[in-house]
Amino acid sequence: MKKIQLSLLPKLLSAIAAKKALYLPVDGKAGADYKRYEEGDTLSRACRTNRSAKDFFFPQVEDMAAFRVEGKKIEIIDTRKENEDFVIFGVRACDVRSFDILDRVFLADPVDTFYENRRQHATVVSLACDAPEETCFCRQFDILAEDPAGDVAAWIVGDEMYFKAKTEKGKKLLSSLDVLLADGDSAPVEKEKKHLEAIQHKLPISEFNKEHFKPEDLMEHFNDPAWAELSEACLGCGTCTFVCPTCQCFDIRDFKTNDGVLRYRCWDSCMYSDFTKMAAENPRHTQLERFRQRFMHKLVYYPANNDGIYGCVGCGRCLAKCPISMNIVKVVKKIGGKKA
Amino acid sequence: MQKMMQDRARELLSSGKVDRVLGWIEGDFVYDVTPHVFRENDIDQLIYHSFASQNLSKYLVGETKKDGVIAVFLRPCDSYSFVQLLKEHRFDREKVYAIAIPCLGKVDAEDLRAMGIRGITGVTDGKERIILHTLYGDVEKEKSEVIAERCRKCRGVHAPYFDERLGEELTKEPLTDRFEMVEKLEKMTAEERFAFWQDELSRCIRCNACRNVCPACTCEKCVFDNAASGIENKAPASSFEEQNFHIIRAFHVAGRCTDCGQCSRVCPQGIPLHLLNRKFIKDINSCYGEYRAGADLEEKAPLNRFDVDDCEPGDVVGKGE
Lengths: 340, 321
Fold this sequence. Notes:
The complex is a heterodimer.
Chain A: E1 2-5, H1 9-19, E2 21-28, E3 31-36, E4 61-70, E5 73-78, E6 86-91, H2 93-106, H3 113-121, E7 122-127, E8 152-157, E9 160-165, H4 168-176, E10 182-183, H5 186-202, H6 218-222, H7 226-231, H8 239-243, E11 250-257, E12 260-267, H9 287-305, H10 317-321, H11 328-336
Parallel strand pairs in A: 2-6, 6-7, 7-8
Antiparallel strand pairs in A: 1-9, 1-10, 2-3, 4-5, 4-12, 8-9, 11-12
Chain B: H1 2-14, E1 20-26, E2 33-38, E3 46-47, H2 59-63, E4 70-74, H3 76-87, E5 96-100, H4 109-114, E6 120-125, E7 129-134, E8 137-142, H5 143-146, H6 149-152, E9 164-165, H7 180-187, H8 190-201, H9 209-213, H10 239-253, H11 262-266, H12 274-288, H13 313-317
Parallel strand pairs in B: 1-4, 4-5, 5-9
Antiparallel strand pairs in B: 1-2, 1-3, 6-7, 7-8
């Protein structure tokens, strides 16, 4: 365990930024968001950022290839760049779990090399939650907000910040900062963890009966008449999917340039009318079907393919951001709760 | 008011005058409100308080395609969108029973959070004051301190095209001059203004919430969703493209925007999108005389008619440099 006085945190951040690209949540005009560290930036204490941390590995838009056409000759240009090493500082437990969920998609065979490259270059410093919002429900997915995963876990206790390396990458990062860090006793952190856990148990969203979402019940949930009522007011915007740390659907598009084509991918949203539309047919004609897809994916399809792990981390962004306040908690209560 | 609305809705449903009622339902939190189509079995769950923020009129486009008559509750701002939609023949008036209800101004949970009011569990509304019950005790505030920006300019008067009124008409003086910020932007240099919008729009994630909630955006297929349009895209390729989307949208709703402010309410990134629309409203007012979209069913909109005396906009507001 290592520690530093909070007053010295700017020094620590500068030291990290001197060696690697550093990103951290910073308070902005309308809530906190990650940004590249510049001298003078201070770490936001907000419990969540507007956008999730998935952007670091799975950005909203990225180029995949370019094609240059000259007469009958087509040249394929690899647009991939080797990423620089970077550190994400202050990621909350829910967002750290989202990386595992994305890994299971993008690092499964065939590996997504764009994603893999970013993952390899990243060191994640997580931060325990001291002031969860009432919309937080990560514990329902067995995520411990008081003891986050990551390469290094951090806790703010009083006027000190404690660090514990959890991986080789994490150890390397901490040892490179050795001159600034003092040895810390684990007792204050253990005490803080207990305190933070107690807060977690007080959060209002605790009745979350997700056990019913078993793969064998797939058709029963799929055909549940409640989807009609739940999706009735959905506007079909992409807010929930874009602020979601685990939504991973993307589209690949070609952009015609003067002398060829630029192929890029961008986030897609199952809420959009042309989601997975193919040349011949759109498999989901109505908002009900698209709405159902989002929640079935998180609660049934994903766990069925991934050792029972749910595709939601309980960050509460969709609860806070949906224009009509429809969200996964309401869905679970209506769809899953009946067999109890 | 809530009780009155429930009773009236129940009456309308049991008398067979309407088949469905469009209102608001609460979720896990008092601010967790969703528009909902009620029938007799769940009408006692209809709520109405400071967090019933969503406008309902746009849902009529879809709802009137179904069989039967639907009752809808219209707050003053929503009543203008209702008329505007009607004017554009976007829904079947015969299938709607419109009930005007008063509004004391809405409060957004995100705004309260920014003010440090968290863990909200309940609300007691008064005319001047609001009590927010939270996990950490009650917080009492002057309504004027906490109501949303879009409500600060409200005059509380309905557009007169509803079927009945519940409760009293609450006329009020706007708390702010709605063009104040527009004027500030107009006074900026072109560079400053560009920097202002660059900063705001760079946060856009192109989730389309502003478009999809907008009662003036009811195209069956938006040009940005239409693969045949050539400009369809799901993500901004550049910050320029982002501005393009918002500017095209603002132009398209010019003269039809009722200034309901829902675009800014729903933006997950807190972009003050209503300022673009207000600039258009201000310019239309100064070029063609006061005009309010949705106030009159018959009156032709300034941008839809031509008079030989019409001004040259460039002469009035100046030409861009």
